[in-house]
Every structure is written in structure tokens, then in C-alpha cells.
Amino acid sequence: MILIHIFFLAAPFMSTTTARSLIYAVEKWLWPETTCIANGAEEDGAMPRKARRQRQDTFDFLYLWLTGYDVQAELGVNHRLRMNPLWSNLDTRVMEARSELEVRGKCFYPEERKEEKFVLTLMGDPGPGDFSHTVADIQQHDAHGAPRYRTYRGCPVPVFECPKGVAILRRERHVDTWNACMHVPENYISDCLVVLSTKAARYIYIHEHIVEKERWINSFSIQSNDPTE
Q1: Residue 41 has what pLDDT?
Q2: Among 8, 22, 131, 227, which one has the highest count of C-beta atoms within 10 angstroms of its own C-beta?
């Protein structure tokens, strides 16, 4: 706990990069990978199982110059109703309003990713979607349907499958860009537009989660302050 107190006392004097790195280190110390079944954890008291290759997870920080953006807001009759007159889902909305924000950036950190281009599309959803989920929704269950727990430092903790990220990053080699599509709450797009309208937003920050050969966006932000400071 002393380490946590030192961190919060020193946080105001740290750069954003240093603070983010320390937060990640503290998280790994407080909640190690043994709480997540995806990282090869075994429940206490369980019979030993045959060793299996652990999933290789790494994280990286990407800092981009914001090079441009486009926004679109539309409404109308749900086009899927006319495409499929035999639509059976009675919860489908008849009228539809959608918003979409595309932001573009060019990486300047780290050095080995410099000049790489990114196109990130944010699709506004009327409902909260995955953003309403709690840890209970991703907790593992045993063969009888009971929630799974393990003992860590004398306390029961849930065994859960942590999401890989908000959206997967895919490289379009024919145009030499990284692309991702994120489904977000509609009010988040409004927040982004407020930041962009100030003309002060110049940077995009991406916390990248690399799982084997896949690259995921663990977190994302549009900001006016230099993320390297």
C-alpha cells in the first residue's frame, strides 16, 4: 500500500507517459494475470492439468498527430425493414438515427511505428451495448453454471475472461493504413466533436493490446495535450 500512496503523491509531477506506465505496472501488481483464465490460471484446489502454452499478450503506447476527420449524422426508416420484409425481430426500431465519426492520424511515437497512418471509425449506437457490461457478465462459470472463483492472498476473486479490446486493428496493405471500427455510445461521439470543435485537439492516443498476431485497441482518446509530456 505504501507504493500506492507514493504514486498518488508523485502523480501531479509526472508526465502523461510516465503516469500511464506506472498505472499499468500497479495494476499488474495488484491484479496479476492469475485472476484471468485466459492467461492460463488454475483454480486453487483444482487437479493439475497438462501444461499448455500461455497466450502471449503485450501492450504498446501509440501517439499520433491528428491529420483530419469527417462526421456524418443521418436518420430515416430502418433500411433493413425494406430489404427483408420477413423480418421477425419485433424489437427492431422502425425509425433509425445514426452518427459516424472518422478520425485520421499519423504515428510519431514509438520510433519504429513512425509515419504509419491510421483511420479510426466511431459508430454511434443508441443503446449502451458492451459499455453496460459489468465483471459479472464476463465471469467464468463451471460445468454446473456456478460462477468461478479462486483464492488470491486469502481472498476469493472472480475468474473472468477480460476483453481483448474495444476493437481490432487491421492493416490495409494496399493503402498502407491501419483501420478500426468502434461501436460507441452516441454521447461519446458528441464528446469527441466538442473536443474537435475547439481546434485545439491535435493528438490521438492509442493503447494497443497485441494478442499473438492480432492488434487490438485497448483504449483510445482524442486530446489537445501532447501525450509525450
Answers
A1: 42
A2: 227
Phi, psi at 108, each rounded to 5°: -125, -5
Cell, residue 132: 453496460
Nearest to 79 by CA among 96, 100, 102, 55: 96
**Rounded Cα–Cα distance for residues 203 and 118 (Å):** 12
pLDDT at 34 over 90: no
What pTM was estimated for this model as a whole? 0.71
Contact 192, 222 (CB under 8 A): yes
Calpha distance 185→101 (Å, rounded): 12
Q: Where are the domains of the chain?
A: 31-223
- pLDDT of the residue at 39: 42
